[in-house]
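Example protein as discussed:

>
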Amino acid sequence: MSKPLRVFPSNLSTQKILGNALRPEDAEQDYIKSNNYYQWYYTIGWAVQPIVIAEFGVRYGYSLVALCRGARSVFTSFPLPSVLGWDAETDVAGSNTIATENLCGLVHDVSIVKASTSGLVNADLPIRIADIVHIDADHSIKGVKQELRLAGTLHKRRGWILVDDTEVGYIADAVVDFAESNDYSFQELPTLRGMMILRLN
């Protein structure tokens, strides 16, 4: 990666970034209170200015909200991004509907499919469409490898793959293996739970 990404100085709290999307039951969670999590997504949205964002593992859409708000933090005339998501709703029944509602007004259009990534194949996905692909669904080693393969089909030539929870050793190892086998460079970000960014060389 040509230059390191750093979270830019900001007084934005997680509550301010997520706004009304934040669920009361999540307010005391470490990823909300730390202010070292969604600030990075906001920064990445600002840096990439995505037209299309894809995500494996949507839940309530918090990461998407932060990416979209960051994308329009400087250039408010910039087109609203489109969002594609896949989530099996194993955490919360009906969460895809809630995520869609949370993204209302922040996106041009949104499509979240209730599906497990384990059952997806490359033919199920659009080709080379996304500026950002975020991986945060199946945290098994098999699941992470599957989502990396799918992400490699989804992103544009200069697109970014974001992998969450890389503080988990086997997830980080899977990312490094994928990067080295497919000519990607990667950068590690010091988020609360670890994140790695991949881009084709």
Notes: The mean pLDDT is 92. The chain has one domain: 36-200.
